[in-house]
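Here is one such protein, fold included:

. . .
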Amino acid sequence: MSTGSDVFLNPPSNPTSRGATPDRKLRAMQARRVPVARTANPSQLRSASSPALGDSSPRDTATCSRRSSPGPAERHRLRAATLPLPDVVDMVRRAQRRREKAERERRQQNARKKQRRKEKARCARDRLRGLIGDAEAVDKAIEAEVEEARKAGFSAVFKALLVSYLDRERGLLRTVRERVLIARSDAVARAEVLVGLERLRDELWGDARMGVSTVLLDLHLRRTQLIRGIAEAVV
């Protein structure tokens, strides 16, 4: 039977027993560990008990902040390239004033153009009304002349000649009034009227019977020229 002193003199063989020394415990733990290659145990597959060195290494935040901050030369360049807030506000206000001025000028220019178009259209309407009035006045003059020719003491042959010329003038004039002035879309009618007036003028000049009265011949010639002027005045 062993005594208590035998425990200290003859320690047990088990290194993990209660009486083992710390050095013997460490050697026993190292003997149980099996080395594993790094390729077989990559860092991402390691257990939480053995974290990566990068995660456990301390980080000097003060040094990082000092490294990221600009130096004196960089700060000087930043200050030189930075505009003060009042200057920025003044630039924005100047740009806004320029934009407002350009907008006002554009509105004024558009208003002037619109006014000019209105004035031009009004002048065209007034001119057209004047041409229509001239055509109506000439038509009334021809009608009155027809009545006078029928009541005059000319021969029946000469009366018929005058009335035929007057009817042709009135027909051409009414074509100008209805199809050229009022419709304002019949360019063919205006060309036909001009051709008809040219033919009528040539016939008046070549008719020996109209030569007996230079006053009547001149009256008809001036009237054909007036009708031509009304037809050509339409743009």
Observations:
- Residues 1-10, 46-56 have pLDDT under 50 and may be disordered.
- Residues 131-232 form a domain with the de novo design (two linked rop proteins) fold (CATH 1.20.1440).
